[in-house]
Amino acid sequence: MNLFSKLFRSRDKPKDYLSVHWPFLFGSTTAGRNVNERTSMQVTAVYACVRILSEAIASLPLNVYQYGAEGSKEKLYTHPLYHLLHDEPNPEMTSFIFRETMMSHLLLWGNAYAQIIRNGKGEVIGLYPLLPNKMDVSRNKAGRLIYTYRRNSDEAGSKKDEEVVLKREDVLHIPGLGFDGLIGYSPIAMAKNAIGMAIATEEYGATFFANGATPGGILEHPGVVKDPEKLRQSWKSQFTGKNSHSVAVLEEGMTFKQMAIPPNEAQFLETRKFQINEIARIFRVPPHMVGDLEKSSFSNIEQQSLDFVMYTLNPWIVRWEQAMQQALLLPSEKSQLFFRFNVDGFLRGDYQSRMNGYAVARQNGWMSANDIRELENMNPIPDEEGGNLYLINGNLTKLKDAGLFAKPAERNDLDES
């Protein structure tokens, strides 16, 4: 088997799988730069994409719901998982920090792991992130998945280097894009050449400007200059620094020619710009969100933001929801409970558009005043004051009374017949 087929085969693999293929995954690139999850974060475009996606997932409201009658659903504020996922998954982290950390692992390594702490009833009472580069996924002799985590002596609660074997039910595993359904592959590793080129281009630009290799200009003399160094120093003392905009008076037929950056030296600017779009393409982040506004305008930037929610965030959200559904709920709860991220805040338009939409929904009977107030983060109107009434147009008649006016006419028609 060649290297490619070995890399993408089923993950029923020897434990040294990653160490064998580490040079392919994180070795030197064609640009001559080593790329791994840490060096890649020094590229501003990679850092921006990881931060945007991690903070987006971390800031979304995450709730536990229960299926109700006739397809309805209700939030379970009293369920233990609501507090863990919405507020505090462990005593050391908030929900935002936990999800931000897990999402950054998912974007850099292609997998996110968290240890599940349970009580004697099997209920989840804590979640702790685990570093993906210390985790190995394999199968035991019975064919069941096991997670082997390598703990270092400097970690809390560990006095020596050791391996801890965790069962499938003790790990929340969110895999990214993979080829076997079990393990995700790192976007950084798959696109290491693009990121390596961005690193090399940035280093070249820093070196170019640090060395000042391009002269500011050339003094041309029609004859032979006996002491060129003295002439150079005289020019610098008179026309550089605070005197850079002074008027120069040239003698002996001398002329001054200003130098521009040669085209081959300036090409790296275009290369750097292209690499920003290349990296944004890897993470499917709209370029305007990482600072490239060349193809963005007021007319299309809102649509790009909606596309970001639908085509970028939504697949990640589904991965999170289904992984939590599988790992965190008890078998008896899986048919009754589910998790949902609320993306309504990201899909909200401007104030006028929202109000116009609410007016249409209110007048056509499919939203009540309290439905609207909940979306606007406002307190509900008491039921006795009509907060939960559903109205339709026609002097805002109650939905149940909408056909009353027609009943007498129907009776008159019957009497005449």
Key features of this structure:
417 residues; alpha+beta; 3-stranded antiparallel beta sheet; 15 helices; 13 strands; 42% helix
Please summarize what this structure is.
The protein is of the alpha+beta class and 417 residues long. It has helices at 3-7, 17-26, 37-40, 44-59, 80-86, 95-109, 187-190, 192-211, 228-239, 263-283, 301-328, 344-347, 351-363, 369-375, 407-416; strands at 62-67, 73-75, 111-118, 124-130, 135-139, 145-151, 162-167, 171-175, 217-220, 255-258, 337-341, 391-392, 397-398. β5 (135-139) and β6 form a beta hairpin.
Q: What report would you give on this structure?
A:
By secondary structure, this protein is α+β, with helices and mostly antiparallel strands. It has helices at 3-7, 17-26, 37-40, 44-59, 80-86, 95-109, 187-190, 192-211, 228-239, 263-283, 301-328, 344-347, 351-363, 369-375, 407-416, and strands at 62-67, 73-75, 111-118, 124-130, 135-139, 145-151, 162-167, 171-175, 217-220, 255-258, 337-341, 391-392, 397-398. A 3-stranded antiparallel sheet has the order 2-1-11. The chain is flat and about 100 Å long. The protein starts with a helix and ends with a helix. The model is unreliable at 4-24 (pLDDT under 50).
- Helix coverage percent of residues? 40-55%
Low-pLDDT segments: 4-24
Helix/strand class: alpha+beta
Number of β-strand runs: 13
- Which sheet architecture does the biggest sheet show? 3 strands, antiparallel
Element-by-element helix/strand order = HHHHEEHHEEEEEEHHEHEHHEHHHEEH
| Average residue-wise pLDDT | 78
Distance between the termini: 89 Å
Rg: 32 Å
- Provide the β-strand percentage band: 15-25%
DSSP helix count?
Answer: 15
Strand order of the largest sheet: 2-1-11
* Shape type: flat
